[in-house]
Amino acid sequence: MPQETSATDTAPRELWYPEREDITIYGILAALSDPTRLEIVRALAQHEERCPFDFLDITSKQNLTHHFKVLREAGLIKSRYEGRKKFVWLRRDPIDEMFPGLLDGILGAVK
Questions:
Q1: Domain, as residue range, for 51
Q2: Is the dihedral of CA 98, 100, 106, 108 positive or negative?
Q3: What angle do CA 80, 60, 110 make, to 5 degrees?
């Protein structure tokens, strides 16, 4: 007979993140071509990490979910859970190593 699980027994959420070799300049540029995603990345570049709900003044929760997924799949952000709270941060080091000056150029050019 299967064991019942409660809400407290759930496993931590596992999200897919691209490996370094799967991150492309085309994916990054496509992700940053949207003004909302660009604004999210600009904010993340100024903070070590932030809660996605900090961005509700930009757009709705449903739209944020989509934008964070696009940024994650492009390799630009990572996230972690702390209890029920989620925190996201910019994957600055691998992006800067692979494409030196790209993020600084894009983020500095847009005001």
A1: 20-109
A2: positive
A3: 80
The tokens of 8 are what? Answer: 């407290």
Per-residue buried b or exposed e for 55-84, using 16+ beta carbons within 10 Å of the residue's own CB: beeeeeeeebeebbebbbbbbbbbbeeeee
51-82 pLDDT tens trace: 998 999 998 889 999 999 999 999 999 998 88
Q: CATH number, domain at 45?
A: 1.10.10.10
Tokens of 72: 């994650």
Q: Please check whether residue 32 is in contact with residue 70, taking contact to mean a CB–CB distance below 8 angstroms.
A: no
pTM of the model: 0.81
For residue 36, is it within any domain? yes
Q: Could you give the number of structural domains in the chain?
A: 1
Distances (CA, A) of 83 to 13, 39, 57, 70, 87: 11, 27, 24, 24, 11
